[in-house]
Design a protein that fits this description.
The structure holds two protein chains of two kinds. By secondary structure, chain A is of the alpha/beta class. In chain A, 35% of the residues lie in helices and 27% in strands. Chain A contains eleven helices and 14 strands. In chain A, the strands form three sheets. Chain A has a six-stranded mixed beta sheet, sandwiched between helices. A four-stranded antiparallel beta sheet of chain A has the order 2-1-4-5, with helices on one face. In chain A, helix 3 packs across helix 4 and helix 4 packs across helix 5. The longest helix of chain A has 16 residues. By secondary structure, chain B is mainly α. The chains are: A alpha/beta, B mainly alpha. Chains A and B meet through strand 1, strand 2, helix 2, strand 6 and helix 3 of A and helix 1, helix 6, helix 13 and strand 1 of B. Strand 10 of chain A pairs parallel with strand 1 of chain B, so a sheet runs across the interface.
Chain lengths: 314, 273
Amino acid sequence: MGSAVPALTVTNLAKRFGERSALEDVSFDVARGEVFGFLGPNGAGKTTTVRILGTLIAPTSGSAEVDGIPLAAANGTEIRQRISIMPENPGLYRRLTVQENLELFAGLYGIRAPRARISSALDAVNLQDRSGDLCGSLSKGLSQRVGLARALLNDPAIMFLDEPTSGLDPVAAREVHDLINSLRQRGVTVFLTTHRLEEAERLCDRVAILNTRLLLVGRPAELRVSLFRRSLVVETAAPLAVPQAVFNGDAGVDSWSVDGAATYVLTVADPRFAAPRITRALVAAGADVVSIAESRHSLEDVYLELVGDDPARR
Amino acid sequence: MIRIDGGRLAAVARKEIREFRRSPFIIGSIAVFPLVFMINPLVVIFAIGATVKAATVQKAVGGTFLVLLIVPAVVPATIAAYSVVGEREQGTLEPLLSTPVRRLEILLGKALAAIVPSIAVAYLLFALVVLLARLFASNPTVVSTLTEGPHVLAEALFAPLLAGWSIAVGTAISTRASDVRIAQQLGALASLPPLAATALVSFQVITPSVGVALGFGFGLLAIDVVMWRVVATLFDRERLITGSRATPPPARGGGEPPGTVRHISMTGGTDGG
């Protein structure tokens, strides 16, 4: 994906507020054009990380590079020129119209021909017909879309989106997802913090799970495999008379358990290898097989497994 | 070296003026304060009899003239007091600070937006008092005294200096306040020092003269410069967002245990695919 230099390089980043530690020893890279999900419970340090990388606050220790530029106070203006941050609360000037809000930010980014850029940003979020509305009169969902339009204005190399679909109806949320996918195709790096795990799973190339410390980084599918053993769920029409006779044979089952009257969860090394063998064994045992399928763990399962067990949460 | 981008400064100032125009409180402040402060000078001027000696007219006009100078101290203070805490209350401060704009550009843009209407109102008020004096004052020397060179010069000089002081104090309060109303009430205190100077002159503790005016002028300029340095220091991104400045690393240094992060990658790449 383009340049070998990562869009973000974070090394041993830490932030303390007085005696309270908001971030501890956080390190990760984000490749250019990657959609990177940043997940964690409230107070995990997600917003603090975004603020540090956006040069709004200084880390207590550690270092980072944003779009190849070392994170330092002297580089703040240059870094902020190349990124955009959309906070969860879009923070619009309520007494100004949508157009006037965007004109302000176009001016702050030094955009030449701002009208064309504003028009294209409004087009991207389907708000062209609301440009004359006062922001104070907009619903939360529409405000969120104006915030997104504002984040698109400077054509950023890296976009930090904090809960971009918060308050949006399903149709508008889908439009935001499409927008994020189109940004990915244009090579824009998206750093997405979200509580919607299905959204992260659908959109993100990789996710990081944070709880003050970074607990895990990887692709959603890889995380599932790394945390959960693969398993098959077998349902039969009636309970098996002697299930151990079926599952303890040569069907590739490592272990099994009963999950309901006639449902069995089988831990297997390779579902594609084991499923046909188990089916044959069940048929040979005279069982009526209702279904046999690989158990799918969601990103939510991964998240709960990690965060639920994390002592930092308690 | 101080670098200021004129485009960003203008963008901030334009936004501020657009917001002022739609804020009933600010429009009200700009309209009402000058009218209130115009009453006393007019009463004094109209009360001067036709046969009153020139020296007495000079003293009366000098006193009322100083009252007019309170306007450029009071009006911008209420505007400036809203400038930062208003952004914080609306939730617009963080998006604003996330842009390439430098703090000096924000501060000067906001100051420019506050000082222009304040000085315009102050000058307009002065012109209005002169006009009303010309039309209705019974003593013919009142107008000539009001429009004497030193008075006009002092109005031209002190209005921006007082407004500069007032905006600096208002902005300083605004960066630390957590509530718009408290900031605006405290901001009004910015007018106290000029009020005190006015009182000293009115009660003839200080005799007005060109030398005193120049002394005040230079003193005020020096105070303005110091005050704006203080404001620039207070206007710290981290402090504005989190309420505290960046804390240094703990004394024990690097004692935190490393995290237990697991980097999971089956394909060995971080390019996101």
